[in-house]
Amino acid sequence: MISPELLRHYTFFAGFSHEQLAVLAMAADEYSAGTGHTFFHEEETLSNFFLLLEGTVALTIKIP
Q1: Alpha-carbon Rg for the chain in angstroms
Q2: Is the pLDDT of residue 64 over 90?
Q3: What SS3 state is found at 61?
């Protein structure tokens, strides 16, 4: 679980009620990934939502 107040700091969550933020925060986990970590690949079905709090990511797209 993370703090609902942490989510409230991001404009993405601006329209969420306190109750909605609390539910989301209870379902959330904090995760730290190292350099070179791959979160997902193209065409994979995703079951997670990632919110980057610190650092950078690279998006790689295959162009046919």
Answers
A1: 14
A2: no
A3: coil
